[in-house]
Write a structure and sequence with these properties.
With about 325 residues, the protein is α+β, with helices and mostly antiparallel strands. It contains 8 helices and 14 strands. Strands 2-1-7-6-3 form a 5-stranded antiparallel beta sheet, sandwiched between helices. The longest helix is centred in the C-terminal third of the chain and has 52 residues. The protein starts with a helix and ends with a helix. One of its GO terms (cellular component) is plasma membrane.
């Protein structure tokens, strides 16, 4: 039972990890396609077209915002939000991380200049074909979908699930959409950081409770999906389930035995009746009487009834007389 529980947990992690991977791959494809679409457009003459392409990418990919920054510090945002005068795109984390990666990638969490919180972005570097300028397309991820998935999973767990980066930064908390710190996540994250290269299940202690943790890195980002189970609660539930299953097994076994012997009894009865009918069918005897074990007459065929002209009420007297003679 313990091994089965662990296998179920691993399968759940792999399933959700695959879903997040597919989600991120879709986002990366949108940003990559957007970057390709902007390679030929002139920043002055095609400004409105650039803004429209960025806005379409935001709608299709459900991004919070999509922008492009050029190496001459020109910055174009899909929304009409006012850009701070001191905003320098080439010095922003998303810009430098894209150039370091050299390909479409998902950034580490960084402090956003427009909203007072840390965000993650899908970024794609590009070379402008006409001017040879370097530029980066950046799309801020909306993590609400993944957050809701995490909350749905946690409703079914004797533990919790969460997402972190390779350096241990918490991306999606089991606490939900609020900004409350996740104290129970810290020992789990520390366990992952110490055993990142190990694929087997790990355990740790938190508030005198033993937890089992399984985690796996995602393919399309620098993220790790992790899931923990409270061992005490899980095995208490398993023991209760095992006891319940044992009771059901006993009940069904007894019912099966009774049904078997009842079937045997009916089969014997049916067989004896069949033999009797076969005997009637093939016997040269024409006058037939059937009596029970107490010699009571149960049946007289038409010949006997002709030989013994009795009313139905007198059959019982004949039965008694037949019984006495049989005993004599």
């Amino acid at each position: 039972m313990e091994r089965l529980t662990q296998i179920n947990q691993i399968n759940m992690v792999k399933f959700f990890k695959q879903r997040v991977d597919e989600w991120l791959l879709f986002k990366k494809k949108i940003v990559s396609s957007t970057a390709v679409s902007l390679e030929d457009l002139d920043t002055a003459m095609d400004y409105k077209e650039i803004k429209k392409i960025l806005d379409n990418a935001s709608s299709i990919g459900n991004f919070d915002s999509v922008s492009i920054g050029y190496d001459n510090n020109l910055f174009i945002l899909n929304t009409d939000e006012e850009i701070p005068k001191d905003y320098v795109a080439t010095k922003r984390d998303w810009y430098t991380m894209a150039l370091q990666a050299g390909e479409t990638t998902v950034t580490l969490p960084y402090q956003d200049a427009f909203v007072d919180k840390k965000v993650l972005s899908v970024v794609a570097p590009l070379k402008h074909k006409k001017t040879d300028m370097t530029a980066v397309v950046s799309a801020d991820l909306n993590l609400n979908t993944i957050q809701q998935e995490i909350l749905n999973i946690n409703e079914r767990l004797q533990g919790f699930a969460f997402l972190i980066t390779q350096d241990g930064s918490l991306i999606v908390s089991p606490k939900g959409f609020d900004a409350a710190p996740c104290e129970e996540c810290q020992p789990a994250i520390e366990t992952i950081m110490k055993n990142k290269d190990k694929i087997e299940l790990q355990t740790y202690i938190y508030k005198d409770q033993k937890y089992i943790i399984f985690y796996e890195p995602l393919k399309n980002s620098d993220w790790i999906f992790a899931m923990t189970l409270n061992e005490n609660q899980i095995f208490a539930e398993l023991n209760q389930s095992f006891f319940h299953n044992m009771i059901l097994t006993i009940v069904f076994t007894v019912f099966g035995i009774i049904s078997f012997y009842f079937f045997i009894f009916l089969t014997k009865k049916t067989t004896s009746y069949k033999r009797l009918l076969d005997w009637f069918a093939h016997s040269p005897t024409q006058a037939v009487a059937i009596v029970d074990v107490h010699y009571r007459i149960l049946f007289l065929n038409y010949l006997f009834q002709d030989l013994i002209p009795l009313t139905r009420g007198k059959i019982f007297d004949v039965s008694f007389d037949f019984n006495q003679k049989a005993q004599d």
